[in-house]
Specification:
alpha+beta, Multidrug-efflux Transporter Regulator, Chain: A, Domain 2, three-stranded antiparallel beta sheet
Amino acid sequence: MADVEGYRVPEVCRIVGISYRQLDYWARTGLVTPSVRDAGGSGTQRLYSFRDLVQLRVIKKLIDAGISLQRVRKAISFLQENMKTGPSGITLMSDGASIYACESEDEIIDLVKKGQAVFAIALDNVWDDLSSSLGQKNEVRQVARPATARARGA
């Protein structure tokens, strides 16, 4: 029996700490679409990858910190373009108005020297926290693949 990696919607909501409504809205508006399998009509389920979970957890943290959804979209767009293999030392910082992606201590110091209060989300920590809470060392997980999906090669 062939398998496909991914997390189903109820698991994603529980793991990330968001409601089904939020997840559905974010998928329909393209904020984070499931990279394993999107919904394809009645009876199909969205499947999210571990990388999708990291992005969703970052979105939740930014929104919980009071960042507007418009700014969150820009930050996630940056992550989607720049986080191909993992978080690799990227820390997101915000002063409440802007979001900065810092990859070195020098960048962080420059931001703080300006006297602006900032908070940070270290992507490595989000990644590691999700990995340990799911009891896994890597980003993949197996779930049964429906026979119709196998036939289409999806």
